[in-house]
Design a protein that fits this description.
This protein is mainly α and about 475 residues long. It contains 19 helices and no strands. The radius of gyration is 26 Å and the shape is globular. Its main location: membrane.
Amino acid sequence: MFDPMKGMGKASVYHAVVILFLEFFAFGLMTIPMLELLERTFKDQMFLINGLVQGIKGFLSFLSAPLLGALSDVWGRKSFLLLTVFVTCAPIPLMLVSPWWFFAMLSLSGTCSVTFSIVFAYVADITDETNRSSAYGLVSATFAASLVTSPAIGHYLGRAYGETAVVMLATAIASFDICFILLSVPESLPEQVRPKTWGAPISWDQADPFASLRKVGQDKTLLLLCLTVFLSYLPEAGQYSFVFLYLQQVIGFTKDKVVSYIAVVGISSILTQTALLGMLFQLVGNKNVILLGLTFQIGQLLFFSFGKHEWIMWAAGILAALSSINYPAMSSFVSNISSKDQQGVVQGIVTGIRGLCNGLGPALFGLIFQIFHVELNSIPMSPNGDDVPMKNNMSLSPKYTLDETILPGPPYLFGTFTVILAMLIAWFLPKHWQNMYRQVPNKDIEQENHISLIARTQHQKKALESGKMSDAEDQSINEQHCESTI
């Protein structure tokens, strides 16, 4: 009889890749319809509501990610992959029922919007340190690949067949993802470290995420890395929440150009995280890859801060693609400094910090736009439903126009300074790590044990040949030696 918990085949990175691609492809289809729904429903309050929705979702993700990650370290990854994908995608069909229900459920879905952390823990279970960085790069590239074509497909289907067709397709893809996890994905966590039944008791220490959060402050390496994640992802979250409107209303991109921009940046990110990332890890090491990614991020934020022309934005997009090595590099670093039974919780901490940034980033960017009297208004439409380019139609302070100001994107300059601070902190990350999560072997002890093992083996061999020791006694001695070594 087929056991759905065992899935099909052996756990592999490709299972994680398919899960992540389907989930974010479904949401990528909804990119343009969600913006249009926000505009139709809330009009002048669309950015306030969007900030509120993302803020609640991000804060809930910050609270839940370490807990779900810790529980997955005990109960296994598959059940929590199923839970996170189901809850994250549940709001999609509600767009056809009620906008209010849709945005309310989208906010609450933050309680389980931590698929990334469970997927990274899944990958850590089945890879060694040598191959883990490349595997993380492949997973992150999959995220970029899911956004290469999905917004364009969603935009085209919406114009050709209406919003209902887009929502139905996204719902079908999300449902297929759930079925794929249920029927095809095998468990990655070894059976011997999991409870035999769901009724088996576990201690609060096993499931308490705050115990691990407290360790962040005690472990200097993990603390430095978490601060780097926070300061680098804060502007990234704010940037991506406003990039569609910014490119349209400030730079003059049409909606079709925005879709093309996403595709080009996405393809460039895929190439960066697959072909380039592994090579960089071998050449310069994990820490220097993080520093290099932060350098690229500073460059693209500066281009967004001062750029007024389309070619500058395209150059910024290439730099943004190169900076996409940040997240897999940081995730690989935190995985390498953590033990096997802590992968879920430490990845959950990183995902929780990113969730918090997803709430704070858009709010900070919106506040800075308002302080500098930059108002990103709703997108005007032509009579045939196409968007109208709006270069220089952005509302600025009456004292100057876009052509006169030297800083059209003040929030991006703020982001530049936070990433510079993140880079200074990352500079103190060790190239060779040792912390409370890992037991670094002592070479002298290893050598002594190795010599002892050789001597014991030779003695046992002579005893067996002379008949002084039985096979059962020989096996018993070997088992005792393995237990003492462990």
